[in-house]
Amino acid sequence: MAPPSRDGGTVCRKPIQTAWEVFLAPYDWQWFATFTFKDAIHPEAAAKRFRHWVLKLDESNGYRPRSKLTHKRRCAWVRGLEYQKRQVVHFHVLLGNLPWALACSAQAALWADYWLQMGNTGFARIEVCGTSAAAVRYVTKYASKGGEIDVSPNLLRIGEQLAGF
Known about the structure:
single chain, Alpha-Beta Plaits
């Protein structure tokens, strides 16, 4: 049965969206974020900017990619790509596996500001997930609208601990 909508009707979800929701629902997502770009940017260049932002986030947590002394804790993410009406890429992102001290809303605001400082970026809004079900639905809806969903390479490796198994 389809879930109720705000107007009392039902929401029809395509099977691909439902499959993504089932896959992502068990994870404990800590942040829901939107990242935009000021000017038109190729999707691959946009993804590269996002990966750079994630690397800086991981480094702030002590991750050092070329050091043998680093720990292996890196954030996990799911990124939905969408085009704005002006045909510029923007992302909706779920982030998890963040340390407790980093996951608070004050830190989220600092990381949103860092996105703005990177250059050729628009605004970023990062919110702490109260309940991640709504955020998961929001990100996965783009799979059924011709958008793309990408996951971090480490999502499956850390899946058991992030999903609370």
